[in-house]
Backbone:
């Protein structure tokens, strides 16, 4: 993939840039999901024009909890019934200890599901060369356009500088174009 | 850098560059003092490992435990360290849910304490076993013997609870570290860059990643609190389920949880004080943090004295012969010195320090925290040993005297905690950089909120919160 | 054929001679632990005789209570063992399975009668005492909990013999080592479920009490209180 991006110093100017790009998207032939924003901290609330990210994580975590609880119930009751050893005059399977094991495994299920869902939906780990700039670690916000139309590159650059970009760079992870630096 | 806040002029707003530099300094630079301290800490740890191997080889009789006190120092340490591990949960999860901004520089310190205290605490059930090489029989797996563990035993509940809590705490700790590791990756070179590239998992900071990270953190914050409460409740049930005088008490669940949070906050304050001093984090761990945590510590101290009073009053009033033997031995008999030391350490000393604003300085809270940690260790000991020394049949009463094996292992675990924490500080920025910076960039509150904030307090000018998220 | 083994101990007859203790040691391969360990409380007497003094000098009396494992029906030591080393078997006994024991010692803490004993070290029998070991009983290694089993090896031997001969075990056909060795005849052993057995009859005696009955353990050892201690009703 190929991209032109600018580095902005704060979220206000970055937000302006996104807005401007969106307004000029037909003129500059920017694809619907072509505007890319990368930031050193979460800024979704502060940039109004980005598509809202939705995730089913809470539902999946709840589902994971239910699965965990079922597993706990099956573990406690099945194992105790296959090799029933009476202890202390208590029933072989009773609500209280089984309930505790079910509870813990419910929470474990929810936690593990959250972790796995996070990794999968955030698409981590991902070690391939991707659009990124080390300036982001210095606090800059990257706003750019992915796979821009060849003819509009110069205009895009100009637009980004106009909105207050400190620096405009090009990025490519295709072996054929080695031009431009996007990675250090 | 645009500061989109209306901070009064006397509040120091740190630049992102400054923050990155300060917080990454320990990761990139290792002083000679670091190596020296790490080396010194390995000595008691190696001694403890040696003592444990000796005990496993020679027989657990080399420890001081005997009939009738079948549990002693090891279980005291077990309960103590699991208690300390409640620090992270309170600070990170509850304050996160309560949207208290002052938690930002403190969360990672606390979560790290939780994880390491859990690891150390969870090692004690193995250390105290007569046949520790068979500890895996507590894991429910289909064994060739055809038998499963006994789910009716509180020790099994311990296994599940602590296992769940370790998993949750690790997740809670590691998830927000990923963006910081990405920062280290970008700034590092050579072998460091290779390691951190792998650790950062290719994190970039797209809205997709951030949204999922934040959602994950929110779910974890909600999930980890009931887990933490259940963990120490289940640990307390190791005692409450046995018909031992002064153990078989229904108050043990809440009593232990309160004590755990109490000792956890104290451990956190001590850790923060060390970090502040040795890593020069005066701009990040400010007096306001120690002040706020000191107030929480005061609250827990009051809660602790309430539980102690309630439990002892019920026993004393009930006047059951079997319980009174243990009761008097704690209050007036041979454990009296320990008992009153504990009351001093947990309440009489911390209460004035933490209640009087003038005394609730960094030094004051640290002194109170040290006494609390000592007092809480004594409390665990007094819960376990005196009742076992005085069970129902007086003919079988006995004495407990710890041997060098138990003392060495106990000392080794304290050193292990310090060493693990030291290594953590070396490899991870101890203050969450992205959260701290995000706290600095929070938009200003509306005029209505500003007037609702408490008025300026003289003497605390440099720490006056300008927004609800104080750095 | 399920039995319910129980015991009755007559405190009026017990002289405190501790022959039962010695017999138990011999029958069950229990080691002596030495002076230092015994002073520390680590002596292993599966049945112990507790001695109590009554009265002021010169009218002092000693009385004795032998305490084996009470084989409780609602034993608190059983549910707490994580590996089922302590469980309730079909004969109503609290069985201790040495191979399952990993040494958490929770059961010993839970037992209100302090009837459980732990092997702090590997037991040692100086030669030639090792020749005296009973081949019917295992030798336990370090870190394993053990306790009175009502001489389960004798119980099993009798059950097998009776099974082979297709009959029930007769009352008094066998007894544990302690019961067998008591010179005063203070101890009686048998099947509580058999209404004609002597133990069953004596356990219903008006002098019969259970130790620590308020804890709710339902022990199967009945103590016959001393006439002199029953006071004037």
Residues:
């Amino acid at each position: 993939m190929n991209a032109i991006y600018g580095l902005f110093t704060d979220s206000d100017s970055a937000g302006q840039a996104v807005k401007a790009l969106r307004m000029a998207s037909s003129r500059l032939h920017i694809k619907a999901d072509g505007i890319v924003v990368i930031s050193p901290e979460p800024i979704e609330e502060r940039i109004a024009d980005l598509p809202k990210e939705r995730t089913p994580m809470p539902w999946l975590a709840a589902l994971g909890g239910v699965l965990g609880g079922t597993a706990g119930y099956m573990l406690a009751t099945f194992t105790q019934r296959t090799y029933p050893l009476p202890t202390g005059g208590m029933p072989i399977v009773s609500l209280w200890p089984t309930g505790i094991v079910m509870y813990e495994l419910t929470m474990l299920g929810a936690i593990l599901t959250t972790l796995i869902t996070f990794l999968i939906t955030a698409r981590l780990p991902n070690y391939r060369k991707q659009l990124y700039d080390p300036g982001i670690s210095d606090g800059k916000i990257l706003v750019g356009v992915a796979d821009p139309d060849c003819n509009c590159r110069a205009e895009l650059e100009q637009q980004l500088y106009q909105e207050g970009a400190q620096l405009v760079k090009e990025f490519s992870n295709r072996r054929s174009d080695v031009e431009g630096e996007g990675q250090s | 850098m645009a500061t989109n806040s209306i901070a009064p002029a006397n509040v120091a707003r740190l630049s992102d560059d400054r923050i990155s530099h300060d917080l990454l300094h320990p990761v990139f630079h290792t002083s000679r003092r670091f190596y020296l301290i790490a080396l010194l800490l390995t000595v008691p740890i190696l001694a403890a490992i040696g003592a444990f191997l000796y005990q496993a080889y020679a027989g657990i009789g080399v420890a001081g435990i005997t009939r009738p006190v079948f549990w002693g120092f090891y279980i005291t340490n077990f309960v103590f360290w699991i208690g300390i591990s409640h620090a992270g949960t309170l600070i990170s999860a509850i304050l996160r849910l309560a949207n208290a901004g002052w938690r930002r520089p403190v969360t990672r310190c606390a979560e790290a304490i939780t994880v390491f205290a859990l690891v150390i605490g969870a090692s004690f059930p193995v250390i105290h076993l007569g046949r520790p090489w068979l500890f895996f029989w507590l894991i429910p797996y289909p064994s060739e013997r055809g038998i499963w563990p006994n789910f009716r035993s509180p020790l099994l509940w311990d296994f599940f609870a602590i296992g769940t809590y370790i998993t949750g705490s690790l997740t809670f700790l590691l998830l927000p570290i990923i963006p910081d590791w990405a920062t280290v990756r970008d700034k590092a070179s050579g072998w460091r860059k290779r390691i951190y590239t792998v650790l950062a998992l290719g994190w970039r900071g797209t809205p997709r990643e951030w949204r999922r990270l934040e959602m994950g953190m929110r779910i974890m914050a909600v999930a980890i609190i009931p887990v933490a409460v259940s963990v120490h409740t289940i640990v307390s049930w190791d005692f409450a389920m046995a018909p031992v005088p002064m153990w078989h008490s229904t108050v043990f669940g809440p009593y232990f949880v309160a004590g755990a949070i109490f000792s956890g906050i104290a451990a956190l304050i001590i850790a923060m004080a060390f970090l502040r001093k040795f890593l020069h984090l005066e701009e990040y761990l400010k007096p306001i943090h120690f002040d706020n945590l000191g107030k929480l510590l005061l609250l827990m101290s009051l809660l602790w004295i309430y539980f102690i009073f309630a439990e002892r009053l019920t026993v004393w009033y009930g006047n059951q012969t079997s319980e009174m033997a243990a009761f008097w031995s704690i209050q007036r008999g041979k454990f009296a010195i320990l008992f009153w030391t504990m009351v001093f350490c947990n309440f009489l000393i911390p209460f004035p320090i933490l209640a009087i604003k003038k005394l609730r300085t960094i030094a004051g809270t640290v002194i109170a925290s040290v006494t609390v940690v000592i007092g809480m260790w004594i409390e665990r000991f007094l819960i376990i040993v005196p009742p076992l020394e005085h069970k129902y049949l007086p003919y079988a009463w006995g004495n407990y005297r710890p041997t060098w094996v138990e003392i060495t292992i106990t000392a080794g675990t304290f050193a292990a905690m310090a060493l693990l924490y030291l290594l953590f500080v070396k490899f991870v920025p101890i203050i969450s950089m992205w959260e701290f910076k995000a706290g600095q960039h929070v938009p200003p509150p509306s005029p209505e909120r500003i007037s609702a904030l408490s008025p300026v307090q003289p003497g605390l000018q440099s720490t006056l919160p300008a927004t609800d998220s104080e750095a | 054929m399920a039995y319910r083994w129980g015991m009755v101990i007559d405190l009026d007859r017990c002289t405190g001679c501790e022959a039962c203790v010695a017999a138990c040691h011999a029958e069950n391969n229990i080691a002596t632990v030495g002076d230092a360990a015994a002073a520390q409380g680590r002596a292993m007497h599966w049945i112990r005789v507790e001695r109590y003094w009554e009265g002021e000098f010169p009218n002092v009396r000693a009385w004795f209570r032998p305490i084996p494992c009470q084989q409780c029906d609602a034993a608190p030591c059983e549910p707490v063992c994580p590996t089922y080393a302590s469980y309730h078997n079909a004969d109503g006994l609290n069985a201790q399975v040495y191979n399952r024991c990993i040494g958490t010692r929770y059961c010993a803490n839970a037992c209100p009668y302090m009837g459980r004993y732990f092997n702090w070290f590997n037991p040692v029998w100086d030669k030639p005492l090792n020749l005296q070991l009973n081949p019917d009983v295992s030798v336990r290694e370090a870190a394993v909990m053990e306790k009175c089993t009502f001489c389960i090896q004798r119980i099993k031997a009798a059950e097998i013999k009776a099974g082979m001969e297709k009959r029930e075990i007769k009352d008094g056909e066998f007894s544990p080592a302690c019961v067998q060795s008591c010179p005063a005849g203070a101890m009686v052993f048998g099947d509580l479920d058999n209404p004609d057995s002597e133990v069953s009859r004596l356990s219903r005696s008006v002098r019969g009490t259970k130790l620590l009955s308020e804890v709710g353990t339902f022990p199967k050892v009945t103590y016959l209180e001393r006439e002199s201690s029953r006071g004037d009703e």
About this structure: Chain C has one domain: 5-228. Chain C touches chain B at residues 37, 40-42, 48, 50, 67, 76, 79-84, 100-106, 108-110, 112-114, 117-122, 142-145, 212, 215-217 (CB under 8 Å). Residues 152-164 of chain C form the longest helix (13 residues). The longest strand of chain C covers residues 48-54.
